[in-house]
Predict the 3D structure of the following.
Amino acid sequence: QIVEFDPVQAQRALSAAFPELASIEFQIGLPAEVTIQVVERQPVFAWDKGDQIYWMDAEGVILPPRGEAQGLIRIESNITPPLAVSSQPKTEVAENPASDSPTALWGRHVDGLVLKAINDLVFRLSPESNLVYNSIYGLGWQDPRGWEVYIGKNLENFEQKLTVYESIVEYFEKTGIHPQELVSVEFIN
């Protein structure tokens, strides 16, 4: 019976099953009509942990990869995406963040500073520069000149770290130094 239909419960069930839905609206009509209108989140990033890929939208919501998506900005990592501390679990599975299941992250938000830094780097770096996130060194990229660059896990001084890195590169060019593996500006002092 249409009078027994619970749109709130249905909305919760759909949100839990499909965290890639940004909004879900129900319209109930008589005698027995239910119309569902949804808006999908659009993946922008692909966080590649090696054994698992996580999609993220522009707001940093982690989405389950479904099908093929072209043109996603790829971030290679050896860990799962760092989560926002205030992120509220969206699904029953996500209530146990210690779970090793990839579904435990679906619907959760990536740390806001990490997301902002990734967005800033995408617009500043050349297309050949692959973004990386390392459990030890934090956020960085593969510089096209042959080394990795890391700006760390603490991204509060992001702009200063980029300025320091640019100065280091200028010094390298003047002195003919070519780093073999990596340059870290995690600690700018």
